[in-house]
Amino acid sequence: MLREGEKAPDFILEGVTPENVVSEYSLDDLLKDGKHLVLYFYPKDNTPGCTKEACDFRDNMNRLLGKVNVAGVSSDSIKSHVSFKDRYGLNFLLLSDPKKKVIRLYKALGKKKLYGKLVEGIIRSTFIIAPDKRILKIWHKVRAEGHVDEIIAELEKLNIGE
Hints:
Blueprint: E1 12-16, E2 22-26, H1 27-31, E3 36-41, H2 48-59, H3 61-64, E4 68-74, H4 78-88, E5 93-96, H5 101-105, E6 109-114, E7 117-122, E8 125-129, E9 135-140, H6 147-157
Parallel strand pairs: 3-4, 4-5
Antiparallel strand pairs: 1-2, 1-5, 3-8, 6-7, 8-9
């Protein structure tokens, strides 16, 4: 299990920017400007909870951008991410992890109940990562509604930002 204070696992994933630039991104790339990173894992594009969470990030980006970079990760394809991003006007990076390698590295894959059955799936999780790659805060089993406010409160508590 990853713990706060530990070094975040490195990765390289294909992603799409708000401007529809598709490229590979590493953890170093997401931290290179000296800002902290909010890396969040979500189950699936265009589902009710994931859409609510993504739109909450979108709607609060003005409160976040001066403080952190934001990237969302799911196992969906780049094509799905582009559609999701375009449909909801998402203004942050979406990363694709179809083999779930990074999702596993960050312990965001596990057993959960879906329609009364126990299945393996992506556990909604969020990490605040410092420019030196230390994990400052971890949330697992996140509730989509109100989570961005929790993140902003934590950033303020950690004195992160301008």
